[in-house]
Design a protein that fits this description.
alpha+beta, five-stranded antiparallel sheet, 12 strands, globular
Length: about 170
Protein backbone atom coordinates (compact mmCIF):
# COMPACT_ATOMS: atom_id res chain seq x y z
CA UNK A 1 0.00 0.00 0.00
CA UNK A 2 3.09 2.24 0.00
CA UNK A 3 3.05 5.14 -2.39
CA UNK A 4 2.14 8.63 -3.23
CA UNK A 5 -1.04 8.50 -5.23
CA UNK A 6 -3.15 11.49 -6.02
CA UNK A 7 -5.13 13.49 -3.52
CA UNK A 8 -8.42 11.78 -4.39
CA UNK A 9 -7.07 8.24 -3.94
CA UNK A 10 -5.56 9.18 -0.58
CA UNK A 11 -8.74 10.89 0.60
CA UNK A 12 -10.74 7.85 -0.53
CA UNK A 13 -8.89 5.86 2.15
CA UNK A 14 -10.40 8.16 4.76
CA UNK A 15 -13.82 7.26 3.39
CA UNK A 16 -13.07 3.54 3.45
CA UNK A 17 -11.26 3.25 6.79
CA UNK A 18 -11.68 4.79 10.20
CA UNK A 19 -8.90 6.86 11.72
CA UNK A 20 -7.43 5.54 14.96
CA UNK A 21 -4.73 8.06 15.86
CA UNK A 22 -2.82 11.26 15.08
CA UNK A 23 0.90 10.53 15.45
CA UNK A 24 3.99 12.71 15.55
CA UNK A 25 7.47 11.19 15.30
CA UNK A 26 10.35 12.54 17.34
CA UNK A 27 13.18 11.58 19.63
CA UNK A 28 14.02 11.24 23.29
CA UNK A 29 16.69 13.67 24.48
CA UNK A 30 18.54 11.85 27.25
CA UNK A 31 20.64 14.94 27.98
CA UNK A 32 17.54 16.56 29.52
CA UNK A 33 16.74 15.76 33.12
CA UNK A 34 14.36 14.04 33.11
CA UNK A 35 14.70 12.79 29.51
CA UNK A 36 12.19 14.56 27.26
CA UNK A 37 10.37 13.94 23.99
CA UNK A 38 11.08 16.37 21.13
CA UNK A 39 8.70 16.19 18.16
CA UNK A 40 10.08 15.98 14.63
CA UNK A 41 7.75 18.63 13.31
CA UNK A 42 8.25 18.33 9.55
CA UNK A 43 6.13 15.15 9.51
CA UNK A 44 2.85 13.95 11.03
CA UNK A 45 0.76 10.84 10.45
CA UNK A 46 -2.83 9.69 10.57
CA UNK A 47 -3.12 6.04 11.56
CA UNK A 48 -6.04 4.45 9.74
CA UNK A 49 -7.38 0.95 10.36
CA UNK A 50 -5.16 -0.68 7.73
CA UNK A 51 -2.87 2.10 6.50
CA UNK A 52 -1.01 5.21 7.52
CA UNK A 53 -1.14 8.58 5.82
CA UNK A 54 2.08 10.53 6.14
CA UNK A 55 2.06 14.32 5.82
CA UNK A 56 5.33 16.17 5.14
CA UNK A 57 6.08 19.87 4.93
CA UNK A 58 7.78 20.32 1.54
CA UNK A 59 8.86 23.04 -0.90
CA UNK A 60 10.53 25.16 1.77
CA UNK A 61 7.61 24.75 4.20
CA UNK A 62 5.03 26.06 1.72
CA UNK A 63 3.21 22.85 0.74
CA UNK A 64 2.01 19.64 2.34
CA UNK A 65 2.71 16.29 0.69
CA UNK A 66 0.47 13.36 1.60
CA UNK A 67 1.49 9.75 1.01
CA UNK A 68 0.33 6.31 2.04
CA UNK A 69 2.89 4.27 3.99
CA UNK A 70 2.93 0.91 5.72
CA UNK A 71 4.79 2.17 8.77
CA UNK A 72 6.55 5.19 10.20
CA UNK A 73 10.03 5.93 8.97
CA UNK A 74 12.78 7.11 11.28
CA UNK A 75 13.96 10.49 9.93
CA UNK A 76 17.54 10.40 8.64
CA UNK A 77 18.46 13.34 10.86
CA UNK A 78 17.49 11.37 13.96
CA UNK A 79 19.51 8.37 12.76
CA UNK A 80 22.55 10.54 12.05
CA UNK A 81 22.43 12.13 15.49
CA UNK A 82 21.99 8.67 17.04
CA UNK A 83 18.96 9.83 18.99
CA UNK A 84 16.34 7.43 20.33
CA UNK A 85 13.34 7.44 17.96
CA UNK A 86 9.95 7.82 19.63
CA UNK A 87 6.35 8.50 18.65
CA UNK A 88 3.73 10.63 20.39
CA UNK A 89 0.00 10.20 20.06
CA UNK A 90 -1.76 13.54 19.67
CA UNK A 91 -5.27 12.14 19.22
CA UNK A 92 -6.32 13.15 22.73
CA UNK A 93 -5.79 16.78 21.69
CA UNK A 94 -8.33 16.51 18.86
CA UNK A 95 -10.75 13.65 19.51
CA UNK A 96 -13.22 12.86 22.27
CA UNK A 97 -12.54 9.64 24.11
CA UNK A 98 -15.99 8.25 23.32
CA UNK A 99 -14.66 6.28 20.35
CA UNK A 100 -11.68 4.09 19.53
CA UNK A 101 -11.78 5.09 15.86
CA UNK A 102 -13.27 7.96 13.93
CA UNK A 103 -15.04 8.42 10.60
CA UNK A 104 -13.71 11.20 8.43
CA UNK A 105 -16.83 13.12 7.39
CA UNK A 106 -15.28 16.01 5.46
CA UNK A 107 -11.97 17.29 4.15
CA UNK A 108 -11.19 20.83 3.02
CA UNK A 109 -7.89 21.69 1.41
CA UNK A 110 -6.33 24.69 -0.29
CA UNK A 111 -4.53 24.50 -3.64
CA UNK A 112 -2.38 27.19 -5.23
CA UNK A 113 -0.07 27.35 -8.24
CA UNK A 114 2.61 25.34 -6.39
CA UNK A 115 0.20 22.55 -5.44
CA UNK A 116 -0.11 19.33 -7.44
CA UNK A 117 -3.19 17.24 -6.69
CA UNK A 118 -1.88 14.47 -8.96
CA UNK A 119 1.03 14.07 -6.50
CA UNK A 120 -1.10 14.76 -3.38
CA UNK A 121 0.63 18.10 -2.72
CA UNK A 122 -1.64 20.82 -1.30
CA UNK A 123 -1.12 24.12 0.46
CA UNK A 124 -2.87 22.99 3.68
CA UNK A 125 -5.66 20.61 4.68
CA UNK A 126 -8.35 20.13 7.30
CA UNK A 127 -9.88 16.75 8.17
CA UNK A 128 -13.19 16.69 10.07
CA UNK A 129 -14.03 13.56 12.04
CA UNK A 130 -17.54 12.53 13.11
CA UNK A 131 -18.83 15.95 11.89
CA UNK A 132 -17.34 17.41 15.04
CA UNK A 133 -13.58 17.15 15.51
CA UNK A 134 -11.38 18.97 12.98
CA UNK A 135 -7.64 18.49 12.57
CA UNK A 136 -6.01 21.25 10.50
CA UNK A 137 -2.56 20.51 9.07
CA UNK A 138 -0.49 23.59 8.19
CA UNK A 139 2.95 23.00 6.59
CA UNK A 140 3.89 26.70 6.67
CA UNK A 141 4.79 26.90 10.35
CA UNK A 142 8.44 27.89 10.70
CA UNK A 143 9.18 24.62 12.53
CA UNK A 144 7.36 22.44 9.98
CA UNK A 145 3.87 20.96 10.32
CA UNK A 146 1.49 22.60 12.76
CA UNK A 147 -1.56 20.63 13.87
CA UNK A 148 -4.54 22.68 14.98
CA UNK A 149 -8.12 22.01 16.02
CA UNK A 150 -11.38 23.89 15.53
CA UNK A 151 -11.14 27.04 13.44
CA UNK A 152 -7.58 26.39 12.25
CA UNK A 153 -8.33 26.47 8.53
CA UNK A 154 -10.65 29.46 8.84
CA UNK A 155 -8.01 31.44 10.75
CA UNK A 156 -5.42 30.43 8.14
CA UNK A 157 -7.70 31.64 5.32
CA UNK A 158 -8.29 34.96 7.09
CA UNK A 159 -4.63 35.64 7.81
CA UNK A 160 -3.24 34.47 4.47
CA UNK A 161 -5.94 35.83 2.14
CA UNK A 162 -4.68 33.58 -0.65
CA UNK A 163 -5.16 35.34 -3.99
CA UNK A 164 -4.44 32.51 -6.40
CA UNK A 165 -5.69 29.74 -4.16
CA UNK A 166 -8.72 27.51 -4.36
CA UNK A 167 -10.58 25.92 -1.44
CA UNK A 168 -11.69 22.36 -2.26
CA UNK A 169 -14.21 20.39 -0.18
CA UNK A 170 -14.29 16.58 -0.26
CA UNK A 171 -16.85 14.34 1.44
CA UNK A 172 -16.82 10.55 1.48
CA UNK A 173 -19.47 8.94 -0.69
Amino acid sequence: MNGLGNINSILALFGEMRTTDVLVPGYIDHDDEPPSFHPWTVTAYFALENAMVRMDSVQNYSQLKLSVVDEMAVPDEILREEEQFAVASYSHLFFADAYESFRCTQVRYVEDESSDASQAIVQCIEFVFEDNWPVFVDPEWHFGVRLEGAGGLDRWLESNSPQNSRLVTWCPS
